[in-house]
Amino acid sequence: MSDAIKHECGISLIRLLKPLEYYQEKYGTAFYGVNKMYLMMEKQHNRGQDGAGYASIKLDMEAGERYMSRIRSIESQPIQDIFDRINLRINSALEEAPENAQDIHWLKRNIPYIGELSLGHVRYGTFGKNSIESVHPFLRQNNWMHRNLIVAGNFNMTNVRELFDNLIQLGQHPKEMADTITVMEKIGHFLDDAVAKLYKDIKKEGFSKMEASPHIAERLKVAKILRKSSKNWDGGYTMAGLLGHGDAFVLRDPSGIRPAYYYQDDEVVVVASERPAIQTVFNISYDAVQELPPGNAIIIKKSGEVSIDEILKPK
User: Which of 113, 189, 214, 217 has the highest local Cβ count within 10 Å?
Assistant: First the structure.
């Protein structure tokens, strides 16, 4: 490895496994996921005060309806700033249409951040300036739902120049040589490739272009994409990602340098950098939280199916 491994950041990923109506009925709020993410990020604020970011994805939205949202901050209290702004958006929308406060369908269509899938990050700067452009999550946007990628991580790649050169050899033209950009674009390259191949195969089976989309989501092999993407990664990392159609993953480096823990029940899947954050926010025991093995990824499909897959051989 060419460079020293430096400080750490914190990630939080939450996937709600039930319809939003379920959480409104059981917990009295449609904003259950947003509230839990706030607590998860606050419980890990010690891992980074340089910035914070939050992104969410709403499942099964109609064409033309916004299904991805992101907000970032480098204020002196970035987590508080993010959720103050989110609450302002929510309150403003409800003031204009108070009669819709209990209408989940309306809330989901009209208010950002009320999604089934969310990703939070607190940043301790290790690469680049402390500017808003350096704050995770990062977005790689595309008009194809499956090719949208949101990435956040706790990592310090020690071979950024090599990864940058690899992208150029793939025919890309990276806009900057930053570790997050190089990692995201490498995943994005193999994601694009996988979607294109599936689209071709599904068309050959007689499905129309419009009919292909759900089949692509169902057949997309996230583990295969991660194996190809992470082949040359060198350093310590816990990498989290959301795909636009609703798949999600968290991958841990094969040496286990960066931490990752997860918990799953019939309501939620949650992944975080710290075990106590999951314990306290979801009021569960120490033993209920599992450590993600080195070199493995927890993969959550849009269907809600969860698997632990070995991506790189543990060292």
Answer: 113
